[in-house]
UniProtKB/TrEMBL annotation:
PROSITE patterns: UBIQUITIN_2. This is Ubiquitin-like protein. It comes from the Eukaryota. Residues 3-79 form the Ubiquitin-like domain. Coiled coil: none annotated.
Length: 80
């Protein structure tokens, strides 16, 4: 069952993501964002309902379903 949801980038851009189902992982979504937005996966942090989403968690475990909006935050490394 394919469904879509939105990711809001740090600039406020709404990015539509389509997945095959709730068994996809947060890591799969980060891979799609890297492909479409050119941002390395290791720099992407996804947040839903005030909680950071772990890469190995499924969309079902994170309560991500059709029509949901997720926020993307860039994880910047601190300088030396």
């Amino acid at each position: 069952m394919t469904f879509s949801f939105s990711v809001i980038s740090t600039t406020g851009q709404r990015i539509s993501i389509s997945v095959l189902g709730p068994d996809n992982t947060v890591g799969d979504i980060k891979a799609k964002l890297e492909e479409t937005e050119g941002i390395p996966q290791k720099m992407i942090m996804l947040v839903h309902s005030g909680r950071k989403l772990e890469d190995n968690a499924t969309l079902e475990e994170c309560n991500i379903h059709a029509g949901v909006t997720i926020n993307m935050v860039l994880a910047l490394r601190a300088g030396r």
